[in-house]
Design a protein that fits this description.
Strand content: 25-35%
Radius of gyration: 30 Å
Oligomer: single chain
Largest sheet: 10 strands, mixed
Structural class: alpha+beta
């Protein structure tokens, strides 16, 4: 399914977006079900949680990986795991760890992408370190209390993300769009602070180039509420590029909404581990098909060349010459003689052979 999606959407500057969504459930038998926070419901409720990876490029977006989150109440209960047919060896893994495995699978499969984006659940050290070793940039959400500090030749910055944002001068903010939404450009005020430059070979032997660690801050225009992102990018990357990467996170939200309302992502009545993964994978394939069809439908027609136009004119001329060779009666009436088949048809009338005739 991933390979199929990439045939239409692959792009070296694509963004891999990580996020999770909830599947509301009743009872206790469905694999991974429990009382936990579901963003789709906006509260703690009885549900399953799935972690997903979406591929977002200039050609479109599609879901390309998924994992069912198992709470510790499940992984600490072998009988419950066996009843839901969870494969042996599947233990507890945090949502960031599941996301890290998805990124590793994408890299191992040579999926072309340059960035990873995610909300504050995934802005943790494990994912950051893995992406630095892989020469991948990222824009990952962090909490307001996350500590940042600069070093080296960069201007002195130290404190929590919230305190740093509050101490910025008005000139530090720029109004930029995070992409087009249903109501037009999604405008926010943004600030970007470069914290340190690092050589790529510090994280991967033999790597070349200089990368920059930074802090990106987004502020709402109406209420002034801020969101914070830890960033890692090639030195010289502009704030416009980082804002565009963060804006790609909408792709996975759109994928969840479309897959649930149009394709039945959350209409899964199976209870087993395999049932959940098979149902979700089938829906992901259907979504990838829609993305592929949309890409082809929106593709511009191939340009007409002088050679193709010449061939068209020659074909038209040849057709007129053949028509001029037709019999005068056929030319005047506009009709041709009725066809005669081997079974004796002529113009729709059937000629019946004599009963004793021999051929």
């Amino acid at each position: 399914m991933r390979d199929y999606a990439l045939e239409a959407l692959a792009d070296p500057d694509a963004v891999l977006v990580i996020d999770e969504t909830g599947f509301l459930k009743q009872g206790k038998a469905s694999c991974g079900v429990g009382r936990q926070y579901a963003g789709s419901a906006g509260k703690i409720t009885n549900c399953q949680i799935g972690v997903f990876a979406a591929y977002a490029s200039r050609h479109g977006h599609a879901l390309i990986d998924r994992a069912l989150y198992l709470p510790k109440t499940w992984t600490d209960d072998p009988a419950r795991l066996a009843a839901a047919h969870v494969p042996p060896g599947v233990g507890f893994a945090t949502k960031p760890r599941l996301a890290e495995r998805m990124v590793a699978r994408a890299i191992a499969a040579l999926v072309p992408f340059a960035w990873v984006a995610g909300d504050s659940v995934y802005g943790v050290g494990e994912i950051e370190a893995a992406l630095r070793r892989a020469d991948k940039g990222y824009v990952l959400g962090v909490s307001a209390g996350c500590q940042f500090s600069s070093w080296g030749a960069k201007p002195a910055v130290a404190g929590t993300a919230e305190a740093i944002a509050q101490g910025l001068e008005p000139a530090a903010w720029r109004r930029l769009s995070a992409g087009e939404g249903t109501k037009g450009a999604r405008l926010y005020d943004w600030a970007y602070l470069e914290l340190a430059d690092r050589d790529a070979d510090e994280y991967r032997a033999g790597a070349t180039g200089t990368w920059t660690r930074g802090l990106l801050i987004r502020r709402g225009l109406a209420e002034g509420e801020c969101a914070y992102f830890t960033t890692w990018c090639p030195a010289g990357t502009t704030i416009e590029t980082l804002v565009a990467v963060e804006g790609r996170r909408w792709a996975i939200e759109d994928a969840f909404e479309t897959a649930k309302t149009e394709l039945g992502l959350d209409h899964n009545e199976t209870r087993s581990w395999h049932g959940w993964h098979r149902h979700v994978s089938l829906v992901m394939l259907a979504f990838a098909m829609l993305a592929t069809i949309r890409r082809r439908a929106n593709a511009p027609p191939p340009p007409k060349t002088l050679i193709s136009l010449t061939r068209t004119r020659r074909t038209s001329s040849a057709g007129r010459s053949r028509r001029s060779d037709a019999s005068p009666s056929a030319s005047r009436s506009g009709a041709s003689a009725p066809p005669t088949s081997s079974r004796g048809r002529a113009g729709g009338a059937r000629i019946r052979p004599a009963r004793n005739a021999r051929t």
